Amino acid sequence: MDTNRAVLLQTMNVAKHFGGLAAVADVEFSLYKGEILGLIGPNGAGKTTLFNLISGALPVSHGTIRFKNVNITRMSAMKRCKLGIARTFQVGKLFPNMTVLENVGLASLFGERHRPSYADAMSEALELLRFVDLDNYINVLPSELTMAAQRRLEVARALATKPSLLLLDEVLAGLTPTEVAEGIDLINRIRQKGTTVFIVDHIMKAIMNVSDRVFVLHHGEKIAEGSPNEIASSKLVRTVYLGEEEE
Amino acid sequence: MGVNLLDIIIAGLVMGGIYALAAVGLNLQYGVVRVLNMAYGEFVMVGGFIGFWMFTLYRINPIISLVICIPTMYILGWLVHKFIFQPIRAKSENIDKFAGYSILASYGLIFVMQSLAVLAWGGRIKAYSFLSKPVVILGATFEANRLVAFAASIILSIAFYIFLRVTRIGKAVRAIAQDAETASLMGINVDSLYGHTFAIGTVLAGMAGVILSTMFPVSATMGFQYTVIAIVIIVLGGLGNILGSLIGGLLLGLIGAVVLVVQPGLVIVAFYVMFLAILLIKPTGILGR
Amino acid sequence: MDSKTSKRFPDNNIHLGRKISTTWVIPILITVVVTGIFLLIPEWVSSWTIVLLSTIFMYMVLSINWTIFCGPAQYFSLGIAAFFGVGVYTASIVWEAQPALPLIAVLIIAGVASSVLALLVGLTTLRIKGIYFAIFTFGLSELLRHFVMWWEVNQTGTVGRWIPIVDNNVVYRYMVVLVAISILGSYILRRSRYGLALTSIGDRQDVAEHMGVNTTAVKIGVFIATCFLTGVAGALIATRWSYIDADVAFDPIRTVMTIMMSLFGGMSTLYGPVMGTVILGIVSDVLLVKFPYLSKLFLGMILVLTVLFIPEGIAGLIAGKTQMSFRDRIANIMKIRFGKNEKE
Fold first, then answer.
1. Phi, psi of A14 (to 5 degrees)
2. Across residues B80-101, what is the average pLDDT?
3. Element (H, E) at C99
4. In this complex, is the C-beta atom of A99 within 8 Å of any C-beta atom belonging to chain C?
5. Number of B:C CB contacts under 8 A?
6. Does C14 touch chain A (CB under 8 A)?
7. Which residues of chain C does A89 touch, with a Cβ-Cβ cutoff of 8 Å?
8. Does domain B5-281 fall into CATH 1.10.3470?
9. CATH code assigned at C169
10. Which of A133, B109, C93, C290 is 20 to 30 A from C134, alpha carbon to alpha carbon?
C-alpha cells in the first residue's frame, strides 16, 4: 500500500446513537485519494448509517469527519456536495416527476460551486447518461426503467455533481450476475476517470472483486480492515458472516 | 385596578383546562390517524351548540350535555373519517401526500360545517347562563360555572390520559401512533382503530365546546379561532405528544389570561408570537423529540 | 422503449439548450397578442362583464401564483387571504399618506409589503417540514384580522378605512396585465433551473439537498415572488370597494376559492389553474346569485369532493387519459411542431 497517498476522507471516533442504541460506535478510518474502498458487514451493522453521516444526511452524535482536510462534521449535505461528496441512495430516491435527463440535469445545475448555463448542464447530463448507457431513455420517467437502469441513473446523477468522492450505497443489490458484472465495470471506469469510490454492498464477491481495500463493520464497530484477500481469509470475518447468504 | 394575580391565575387555569382538552383531541387525531384536521374547531362549535340547545330548549344541565356529546360527536367524527379521510388515505401513495390532501380536504370541511351551522342555527351569537352565581372559597370569589368548567376539563383530560396509558385500547392506540405498520403486524386492527381514534378526538372537541358554552356565547363562526389555538398548543407541546398538549394548553391559558388584562384584543396575537417563537427555537415542541 | 410524456411537461420538452428564438419568442408573442385582445375588450362589452372578468382574472392571478409554488414543492400555503389582505390594507394606508401617488406605485408598494410578510413566514417555516408551513399560514389570516382590528380600535380609533375608487376599466386592464405576468412567470420558472429545483424539492427534498440545491433559498425565493403578485392583486381589486375593514380584507373565502380552483384545475400544469378558475369562477358566480346562503356550503363541498375524487385535477385527468401530450394534440390539430425533436 502506498502510504504517501493523500487522505481524502477521515473519520475519527465517529458515533451515532438512536435513543440507547449505537448504530455506529467509534468508527475510525481513512480513505485515500483514487482508491476504491469497500465496506461490508451483516445486515444492521450500521453501513448505511455511516454513509448517512458522511454525506450529511444525519448529524453525528460525536466524533469528527474531515474531507480534503476540512472539518465537515457540522456541514450541511448541500455544502458537502459542493465540496465534492456525492452518493447514491438505496431505494426509490430518484425524482419521480422528472425525466431521466432532468434527474441528472438537476445535479449538473446545482452540484458544483461553479454555475453552468442551463444548456451546458444538460449537455453534461447527456454525456453522463451516455457514460452509463442510458442515453436512449432521456425523456422517460424513472418509474419506467428497469431496476438495473435505475441504479445506473442514480450513479449518473451522483456523478453529475462532479464529486471527488462517490459513495455507492448497495448499488449492486438485487441485480442479476450479468448486471453485477456490468456494474463492476462501471465502477472501474468511474475510478479511471479520477473519482474515489467508497462502496457498500452485501454481495461479497463483487466487493472483493472491485475494492482495493475493505473494512468490516459489525454492530456499528469496525472489526477488521485490509486487502480483500486478507479479509476473505480472516477467521473473524467468517464467524461474523456465518449464516449470512453469499452471492 | 380590581384585578389581582389570583383572578388571573384562576381565569388562566380555567381557559387552560379547556384549551388542553381541545388540544388533546386534535393531537390524538394527528398523532395517531395522521390527519391534521383543520376543521377541528368546527367540532368544538358543534359541541358548543349542543350545550346551548340542550339547556335552552330542554333545560338540560350542561354536565348531562357532556354525556350526550359522547355518542353524538362520536358518530359524527366516525362518519367524517369514514367518508372523507379514509378514502383519501386509500388513494394516497404515501404519508406525505395523505397529509397534504387531508389538510386541504379538512380546510374545505370548515366551510361546509360553518355553512350548515348557519343554515341550521342562524348566524347570530347565542348565549345562555348557567351557574353564574358567585361561590366563595378560601376567601376568594369565583363564578360557580368557572369552577365546574375547570373541574370538568381537568377530570376529562386526566381520565383520557389514564385511558391511553392503562387500557388495552389505549395501548393499541399508542402503538399505532408510534408505528402503524408494526402495530398491524402485532394483530391490531389499525384501520378500524383509525376511525375510532378520530371519533374520540371529535368527542373531546365537542366536550370542550360544551364547557365553553357554559361561560361564553356560541356562534357558527367561533370554530376557526379554536382550531388556531389548538394548533398552536399541539406544536408548542410537541406534535403527537399528549402530555405536551396538556401542559401547552395550561400554559397558553395562563398567557392568555395575562394578555387579556393588559390588552384584550391581542390574545390571538400573543399566541401567534409564541407559535413563531417555538417554530424558530424548537419546532418539535417543548416535549418533542 | 418509447418516449413517453414527462408528467412535469406534457409538452415533450427536453431543453437541450435551444436558441432563444424557438423556446421563448413564440410563447411571449402569443401572450402579448392574447393580452392585447383582452385589453381591448372593454370597448365592446358591458360594464357588468368587465367587473365579472376582473374578479375572475383576480382569482386567476391568485390561483396561478399559488400553484407555481405549492404545486411542485408540495408545501401548501393556507394563508392566501393573509397576503391578499396585506396588499389591500397597504394600498389604503399608502394612499391616505400620499394621495397623489399613481396607481402603479401603490400596487408595487402593496406587493412589497406582502413580500416582506412572505419573507418572515418563509424564514420561519420553509426551513422545516411542510406541515408547519401549512398550519402557520392557516392561522395567519386570522392573526392579521385580529391584529388589524385591535390596531384600529386602540390606535387609530376608527374601524375600517377608505380607498380611492379607480375606474372599472382601469382595474380590469391592470388585472389582465397581472394575469399575463403570472402566466409568463409560471412558464419561465417551469423551464428554468429553479423550477426544476422546486420539483425536486417536492419529490425528494433530502436528495435535492445532496445534489447541491439550497432548498430553503429556492423555496423562500419562489414563495416571495408569488406572494408579491398576490398582494398586488389584493390592492388592485380593493380599489373597487371604496371601503375596507379587517373582515373584508382578510376574508378566508379567498383562500378556499383559490385552493379549490387550483386543485380542481390541476396543480401539475400551467393551464390547470387557468381552467379551474374559469370554470369554478363562473360556477361560484352563478351560485352566489341563485343560492346566496348556500354558496359557501357548495364551495366547501366542491373542495372536499375534488380532493376525494379528482385530486390531480382536470388537467391531471387529461394528461392521464390521453397518452398524447397537450402540446402534441394542439400540434396535430394545427400540423405544426413547436420546438425541435430531441434527436436533432
1. -80, 135
2. 91
3. none
4. yes
5. 128
6. yes
7. 207
8. yes
9. 1.10.3470
10. C93
Any chain A CB within 8 A of the CB of C63? Answer: no
**How much is the mean pLDDT over chain C?**
85
Residues of chain A with pLDDT under 50: 1, 243-247
Q: Which of residues 24-43 of C touch B (CB under 8 A)?
A: none
- Facing C297 at nearest CB: one of B100, B116, B283: B116
Q: Which chain C residue is nearest to residue B37, measuring alpha carbons?
A: C135
CB contact C303 to B (< 8 Å): yes
* pLDDT band at residue B289 under the 50/70/90 scheme: low
Is any Cβ of chain A less than 8 angstroms from the Cβ of C343?
A: no
Residue C13 is assigned to a structural domain of this protein: no
**CA angle (A240, A242, A247) in 5-degree steps:** 110
Three-state SS at A168? strand
pLDDT of residue C258: 96
Q: Where are the domains of chain B?
A: 5-281
Q: Is the pLDDT of residue C12 over 70?
A: no
Is C9 contained in some domain?
no
**Which of A136, A138, A161 lies closest to C212 in CB terms?**
A161
Q: What is the pLDDT of residue C326?
A: 52
- Are the C-beta atoms of C75 and C219 separated by less than 8 Å? yes
Residue C116 is predicted with a pLDDT of 97
pLDDT digits (tens, 9 = 90+) for C97-106: 888 889 999 9
Tens digit of each residue's pLDDT (9 = 90 or more) over A59-107 = 999 999 999 999 999 999 999 999 999 999 987 799 998 999 999 999 9
What is the distance of C-alpha C261 from the center of its chain? 10
pLDDT in the model for residue A90: 83
pTM equals 0.89
C342 is a domain residue: no
Lookup: cell for A62: 460525536
Contact residues, chain C, for B97 at CB < 8 Å: 74
pLDDT above 60 for C327: no
CB within 8 Å of chain C, chain B residues 88-147: 88, 91, 96-97, 99-101, 103-105, 107-116, 118-119
For C210-217, what is the mean pLDDT? 94
The answer to whether B131 and B148 are in contact (CB under 8 A) is yes
Give the domain range for residue C93.
20-334
CA atoms of C97 and C100, how far apart (whole Å): 9
| ipTM score for this prediction | 0.90
Q: How far is A86 from chain C (nearest CA, A)?
A: 7
Using the structure block, give the residue that is written with the C-alpha cell 385527468: C317
Q: How many domains does chain C have?
A: 1
CB contact (8 A) between residue C14 and residue A138: yes
Q: Does residue C8 fall inside a structural domain?
A: no
CA distance A171 to A91: 10
The C-alpha angle B78, C306, C234, rounded to 5 degrees, equals 115
What is the spatial distance between Cα A117 and Cα C278, in angstroms, rounded to a whole number?
A: 37
CA–centroid distance for C337 within its chain: 29
Is C142 touching B (CB cutoff 8 A)? yes
